Every structure is written in structure tokens, then in C-alpha cells.
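@channel sequence for tomorrow's demo:
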Amino acid sequence: MNLRNLHLFNPENDLALAIGCRQYTPPPHAAALHRAGALLPAWWAEDGDMVIAPDGYDDDTLWLKSRWGIECAITPARSSELPAMSPQPWGWSEDARRQFIMAGMAENMIPSSDAISGMRQLSHRRTSIIILKELGEDLPLPQDVSDPDRVLSLESQSPGRYIKSPWSCSGRGVFCAEGIPSDTLRSKAEGIIRRQGCVIVEQGFDKTVDFASLFYSDGNNVSFRGLSLFYAEQRGVYTGNIVAPQDYIHDRLSETYSPSGDAFSARLSSCTSHLGHILTRLIAPHYRGWLGIDMMIYRDRQSGSLRIHPCIELNLRRTMGVAAMHIASRLGVSSPKLLTWQHTPPEGSTLLAQTESTPILPPRDNFVLTLTPLKHT
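C-alpha cells (generated this afternoon):
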């Protein structure tokens, strides 16, 4: 029997993984993003699916239907009972498990705590080291470091290292060590190690373009499903995604990589094929759902040639790149758009209604998901 899906937008999930407990209270900006994007799964929900939403979102569903023609059936975040459904969170953690139970889903329909513990370990940034080793690329491997003095030593050997928290999202929890005084760097590293057990220390690259390969695990196999082209600040903080046909994204990356599109296609095909085999062994037995591998095109500092880095990190969850791909398909987008969270959206650009039930928040904690024409194509 094919069950209908119950969707949950929980963008705070990586922060919940870092804490590792069931009772998690997200910081204000993460809680505000959760509220603002509560109905985002409506953009990929199928007939008969439902979306978990806080109280007061009925008008938002009417707005979605009138503005975009999207039907959205919602269920309260607190409910006593639901029909048998398949849970579909943004990402899995003990906190996500709690939210499904609070919404009325039977516990036997939800992954066990042991299963979620396994997914948490796979979500650790050290998994990217395992993947890179199996890829056999001629690249410096990130290092899993639990001694703050080792962080200082690595930075002194090769300045410009990136220091990453084991669990974080959207580029937060990542900083470049270059120019940071030793005492400050040691203190920052010590804090992360104390909270999360280690830091991942990674060599910096001369980045040209950020992109990601999107995969789906059905529990038996992991298959490549598409590309995501996104923007991030120099320090790695995510700023937005391109919403466009897959051919456009491929061509943009190809033009950046080489005047000859065949070179990029061949290299990308090799990477995604190899990754598919690795992820099937590593991920498929333990996880069902979307995942993304962040990549980049960078310039080799010795040869000056452009290269593809095949695995910056694994995102074991749905991503904004996956959302962008669904939105492009749903709208039949032909010209590229920019998908981004903003505080003051341009008129007519909003993808999700601003609910009247959302409390008044300071500007930095008031998010609206927008879709605007891409200025530079």
C-alpha cells in the first residue's frame, strides 16, 4: 500500500543534530525561518499529502491556491491522531521525531532513535572525508581535529584553513582562520570542540563557482537526480539558489569550467557515477530521502587550470537546491530566477504568504521566501 506523505519543514534540523537531544529549542532566527517556511513543502507535495503547520495558517493555504494554484492540506503541529502516513521531514533528528509524534503520527511509522542516531553520525562532516578517500581524488583531505593546538599548527603550515563545526547548516558554523589571532583562534576551536567533540580543518581553495549534485536514496540505491547552482558568501554562508531548467544550470557550469562543454559533462558524469556507488554503500541502508553533495569549481593554484572538487560536504537532508528544482518544475520556469530568503521582499516576488499569526519580529528574524528575476544570466 502506498501511503500519503506528511511533510515537515524543519530547517533547524542540523542545529538539533549538533545538540543531539530530543527536547531542542532553536534560536530565534531558526524558529522564525521554520515559521516563515512552514508551507514550503506544498511546492512538492502530491495529492493527498499533508503539511505540518502551526495554528493560524489557513489563510496562507488560501493565498497559495489563489496566487500560485497550489493546494495545501495542513495538519496542526499538535494533534492527537493521524491516519497512517509516511513522514517526510526536511531532515531527521530526535527533534524531528518528536515533532511528528506531537503531530499525531504513530511511533511505529517513524524511524527509531537508534536509526536516527545512525543518521546523525552520517550527517557529521567527517563523512565527507570518508567519501573523498573512496573517490581517490588527488586532493588534500580535511582533518578531524580534537586538539585546539593542532588547529593552530595546521593553520600556521598553510594559512587560510577553513574550520568547520561537525554539524551546522547553510555555511554557518564555518569560518576561515586566516588573519585570526592565535588566542582567538584557539578559543573559537576550543568552544566548538567542547560542544561537538571536534572540528574539521580543511584547506581553502580558489573558488570560482558553488554547486551541488542532488541525489535520492530509496533505501536500496542512491541515484543522481539533478544539479543545484547556488550562491554563498566568501566565508560560506548560503545566500540563494538559481531556479531554472536543469539544462540551463548545466550549461552555466560548463561554460565556467571549459569552453568545451564536453569536458565538464564527462568530468561531472564520472563524479556523480562514482558518488552514486559510494553513497549506495554508505547511505542507502540507513536513510531514505533526498541528499546533496556540495561541490565547487576552483582554480588550481599551481597549474592555473579549473578543476571540480567532487565533495566539499554531504547534506543528509532535503536542501534548498532540491526545493529550487521542484519549484522550477512546478512553475515551468524557462528564464532563470533567484530563490532567496529576504527580510523586505520586492512586490510580487513572495512564494509563501506572510501569516498574520506570526508574531512581530525584529528585521533580522523576519524571513520571506522570494523568487526574483536573475540579474546576471
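heads up for whoever presents: Confidence is low (pLDDT under 50) at residues 357-364.
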